[in-house]
Amino acid sequence: MLNTLIKIVKRPKKRLGLGHGSGRSKTSGRGTKGQKARRTIALSFEGGALPLIKRMPFLRGKNRNNPFTKNPVIINLDNLSSFSKGAVVDVASLVKQKVVKEREVKKNGVKLLGDGELTIALTVKIPVSNQAKGKIEKAGGTVESL
Known about the structure:
This protein is an alpha/beta fold. The protein has a domain at 71-143: CATH 3.100.10.10. It is built from 5 helices and 5 strands; from the N terminus they run ααββααββαβ. The protein has helices at residues 35-38, 52-55, 91-96, 102-108, 130-138, and strands at residues 73-76, 88-89, 110-113, 123-124, 142-143. A 3-stranded parallel β-sheet has the order 2-4-5. It is elongated. The termini are far apart. The model has no long low-confidence stretch (mean pLDDT 88).
């Protein structure tokens, strides 16, 4: 039965230059003449024009390293409500509690900001803002500087 035959998804590789009967003889599907018919050319080649990388200006002066600055992952005091009293808040514990993603923290770091309220005493071992530090100490916790 034709409907029970297996489907063949993989196509065979094109075999070029195997005589006139193959349908891929002589120029082997490259067309006729010209640079592309004769050899491979680099992706960056622009037909002899000045390449894009050479047309761009040099990066000088202010804001030249903006693409390379790292913005830390921001968490607020509200996110620490899942921790128990007296717990240590560091990068490993934040990843374990699924407050932040490990890949993002390894790439950019993390910072604790003071939005929200904190009612439990915690030991914090990550960078914090001054407002967050005040609220943590007011709740009976401590902030250990790095």
